[in-house]
Amino acid sequence: MAWHEIVKYSPQNYNSDGVYTADEWTSRCDVGKCYDEKSFTLEEYLNVEQHYIAVVISVMKATNCKYMTIQYLEADKEDIVSGIKSSKFYDIDSPLLNSISLLNEKRRIHINKLPDIMRLALREYLYVELCNKEHRLQVEFGYDYYLKISCLLDNETLNNLVQRENLYLDPR
Question: Which sequence spans correspond to the domains of the chain?
Fold first, then answer.
C-alpha cells in the first residue's frame, strides 16, 4: 500500500522542485492574517477543515471501515484542556473537550466520534496516527495541513473522493 498526500494546495503553485510557491495559510493560527491582500477568516478555515474530515470519513465508508484505532498519540490532556480554555476560538473549540477522554493509544474510535479527534489534530492540539489494520487504512495529520493516507482504494477512486472535497491528491 502506498502513502498518498492530500492537501488544500493547488498543484499549479508547486515549482519543479516540489516547493509550494504561493503565500497561503498553513494553520488555524493564521486566521486574521492577510493572503493575496485578503484577510483569512475563521469561516474559510472551518470550511477547509471540514473538507479534510469529510475525505477521511469518505475513505472509511468506501473501505467499509467503521472505526479507527489510535495507533500513536502525542498529547498531554491537561495541555489540551488549558489550550482550549485559553483559545481565542474557545466558542468553537470547547465542544472538543468532550473527546479528550477518548485519547488513549490503542483505543478504537467509532466513525461518528472521529471528527472531533481529527479537529483536535488539525487545530494542532495533538498529533495522532489512526489505523484500522483489518481494512488496511492508515491516516496521519502533518504540519502545514498535509494529510497522509494509506489505503486499499485505487488511485482513481481515492482521487475522486479527494476532488469531491475540493482538495488535491499527491500534487507534487
Answer: 3-169
pTM above 0.70, yes or no: yes
pLDDT tens, residue order, the chain (172 aa): 789 999 999 999 999 998 999 999 999 999 999 998 999 999 999 999 999 999 999 999 999 999 999 999 999 999 999 999 999 999 999 999 999 999 999 999 999 999 999 999 999 999 999 999 999 999 999 889 999 999 999 999 999 999 999 999 988 8
67, three cell numbers: 472505526
Among the listed residues 44, 50, 61, the one whose alpha carbon sits nearest the alpha carbon of residue 116: 50
Helix, strand, coil in percent for the chain, rounding step 5: 40, 25, 35
Cα(32)–Cα(122) distance, integer angstroms: 17
